[in-house]
Design a protein that fits this description.
The chain is α/β, with parallel strands linked by helices. It is built from 11 helices and 10 strands. A hairpin with an 8-residue loop joins strand 1 and strand 2. It is globular, with a radius of gyration of 21 Å. Bound molecules: adenosine-5'-triphosphate and magnesium ion (MG). The site of magnesium ion (MG) has 4 residues, from helix 1.
């Protein structure tokens, strides 16, 4: 079992006095975990990520970081260096005049000399395949470009835990693939990642565990494959199952031997799954002649 970084115990939050936006949230996030928080519009995903970052004054419950109670709300000093948050709207995140300066900002703030920080920022932009944006004014970027720049700015400071609010929304194919690739390499560096999405395809592909959020409460949490194969759980939360799981379930009905195989989580894996069925059927047909 990996080291537990962040725990939430019975966390509740309300924007208005008479209505909870989050209620009774208990979660445990370990180093290297990949947790997807899935929920429909208004379920409370963004609020949950802000709460987990310690940015909201909780109405009830508490957060622990490596077993120590965390002060929440504006001060949040104890989590600032450990937890990075990608906000749903990158407009709220970027503020330096140029992309390069924005990505370097977190490093300069932590005491790195300007020149060194700009060098690190350039490398991060290259890693995200957006070097061409380095000198551009932040306010001129497209939404997807802003998201990728904001992510680069988070990654350079190497937090222990990253909270990403719908990071792929608005990204094109290449942006999404680059993001998933960067998240994969973070795992090797022991960084834990929580991302929110309403896209079960993304969750199936990337997450090891899933928490379903509905009307501010976690209705189910646990193993990603198990939860994402449960259509009634997803339907109750107004979510669609991953397309590759729908296809695999139909194939499993026709070819029961495939029930024990690993479920496909991407289109290429689904193609491979179908090829494997075709091969096994050809073998079967040859034997029965
Ligand atoms: N600043 C705010 N003041 C009052 N209510 C808010 C505020 N922000 C969010 N809410 C309410 O809290 C609930 C949860 O909102 P939240 O933004 O966390 O949902 P979400 O799951 O992130 O939705 P989406 O998929 O649309 O991003 C919603 O009912 C929303 O209307
Ligand atoms: Mg949101």
């Amino acid at each position: 079992m990996s080291t537990v970084l962040l725990e939430a115990h019975g966390v509740g939050y309300r924007y208005a006095a008479d209505r909870f936006a989050l209620r009774d949230i208990s979660l445990r996030i370990g180093a290297r975990d990949r947790l997807a928080v899935l929920g429909a519009n208004g379920a409370g995903k963004s609020t949950l990520l802000l709460a987990l970052a310690g940015m909201l004054p909780l109405a009830e419950g508490q957060l622990l970081w490596e077993g120590q109670a965390v002060r929440t709300g504006k001060s949040r000093s104890s989590l600032r260096d450990k937890v990075g948050v990608l906000l749903q709207d990158p407009e709220d995140q970027l503020f330096a005049p140029t992309v390069e300066q924005d990505v370097a900002f977190g490093l300069v703030q932590r005491g790195m000399p300007d020149n060194t920080a700009v060098g690190v920022a350039r490398a991060a932009l290259e890693h995200q395949r957006i070097s061409h944006l380095a000198g551009r004014p932040v306010h001129q970027l497209s939404l997807g470009e802003k998201k990728r720049v904001a992510l680069a700015g988070l990654l350079v400071v190497r937090p222990a835990l990253l909270l990403l609010d719908e990071p792929t929304a608005g990204l094109d194919h290449e942006g999404t693939e680059t993001l998933i690739e960067s998240l994969g390499s973070l795992r090797a560096d022991n960084v834990a990642v929580v991302l929110s999405t309403h896209d079960a395809n993304l969750a199936a592909r990337w997450a090891t565990s899933v928490a379903i959020l509905d009307a501010g409460r976690i209705t189910v949490q646990g193993d990603s494959q198990q939860i994402l194969s449960d259509r009634s759980v997803l339907k109750n939360a107004r979510l669609s199952p991953p397309l590759t799981y729908i296809a695999a379930a139909a194939l499993q009905e026709l070819f029961p031997s495939s029930k024990t195989w690993k479920l496909p989580t991407t289109p290429p894996e689904l193609e491979e799954y179908i090829r494997r069925i075709a091969t096994s059927q050809r073998g079967y047909a040859a034997e029965s002649h």
